[in-house]
Amino acid sequence: MDGLKQQLQELWPVVIDVGLNVLWALLALLVTWFAAKLVSRAVNRLSERGIDETLVPVLETLAVWGTYMVGGLVVLDIFGANTTSLVALLGAAGIAVGLALKDTLQSIAAGFVLLGLRPFRVGETIQFGSIIGTVRKIGLFTTELDTPDGLRISAPNDKVWGETLTNFTRNASRRIEIIASIAYGDDIETGMNVLRTLVASDPRILTDPEPSYAVRALADSSVNLHLRAWASTEDYWDVYWDLMKQLKPALEAKGLTIPFPQRELHIVNQSEKKPLETALHE
């Protein structure tokens, strides 16, 4: 019994020390968790102070994971771990992981390039490859878009950056192009006047740059008149649809015809043709 008491007396300081370390570690983890929540909320509020919404998700991710890493190092230091050696070990492990996750790291690198160059921002409509959508979020790994038919797409950043990007909403105005086809027997200038009247009746069409009118082509079955006009990006589709809706009745009101594709056929009566030999004898 005396030996057992002596062993317990020797172990008791160790138990107390380990127990205190565990309590301190739990407290550090709890503080880290609260700190991460506060950091996340603080970063999300940056958008209210004029920071571009494109940067907020990435800054939030970096800040939260940075907070967790600091908390983890504090916990290891409480237990007496050699954090310097651990950091070196993590660096070596990071190289190995980087080689294994090459494609993922490419997405991260592409994400930073997109955030730095900013070819698009949250809320803008873009196209890369065959995908068209409105940007909802740019993360470290993926870019999220909503397509016009209501689908949510998550595309790897390197795939987005690797394609030719078209931004439909970055500029303040866009050009509308409309082809009006009239018959060869119709008067071209009358058709031009119809297009000018449609443009003049719509105040959403910009006067600078000025609209332009031209004969686009003398096609197989029609004379194609070409209208180019500018509208604000927000009004682009509404103006385009309204012009297309008004074009047909406006042409018909002036007696112009929108021709269908036509082809002339010449039928030769074979019975009236003379055989070649008979024709040669004659």
From TrEMBL:
For this UniProt record, the keywords arranged alphabetically read as follows: Cell inner membrane, Cell membrane, Ion channel, Ion transport, Membrane, Transmembrane, Transmembrane helix, Transport
Which subcellular locations apply to this protein? Cell inner membrane; Cell membrane
Keyword Metal-binding listed? The answer is: no
Cell wall biogenesis/degradation: is it a keyword of this entry? no
User: Which ranges carry the Mechanosensitive ion channel MscS domain?
Assistant: 103-170
Bilayer-crossing residues are 12-35, 55-76, 82-101
Domain Mechanosensitive ion channel transmembrane helices 2/3, which positions? 67-102
Q: Which InterPro entries match?
A: LSM_dom_sf, MS_channel_1st, MS_channel_C, MSC_TM_helix, MscS_archaea/bacteria_type, MscS_beta-dom_sf, MscS_channel_2nd, MscS_channel_C_sf
SUPFAM superfamilies hit by this protein: Mechanosensitive channel protein MscS (YggB), C-terminal domain, Mechanosensitive channel protein MscS (YggB), transmembrane region, Sm-like ribonucleoproteins
- Ranges for the Mechanosensitive ion channel MscS C-terminal domain? 177-257
One Pfam family for this entry, by name?
MS_channel_3rd
Protein topology in the membrane: Multi-pass membrane protein
Main function: Mechanosensitive channel that participates in the regulation of osmotic pressure changes within the cell, opening in response to stretch forces in the membrane lipid bilayer, without the need for other proteins. Contributes to normal resistance to hypoosmotic shock. Forms an ion channel of 1.0 nanosiemens conductance with a slight preference for anions.
Give the record's family classification. Answer: Belongs to the MscS (TC 1.A.23) family.
Q: What quaternary structure, including any partners, is listed in this protein's UniProt entry?
A: Homoheptamer.
Name of the molecule in the record: Small-conductance mechanosensitive channel
| Organism whose genome encodes this protein | Microbulbifer bruguierae
Source taxonomy:
Bacteria, Pseudomonadati, Pseudomonadota, Gammaproteobacteria, Cellvibrionales
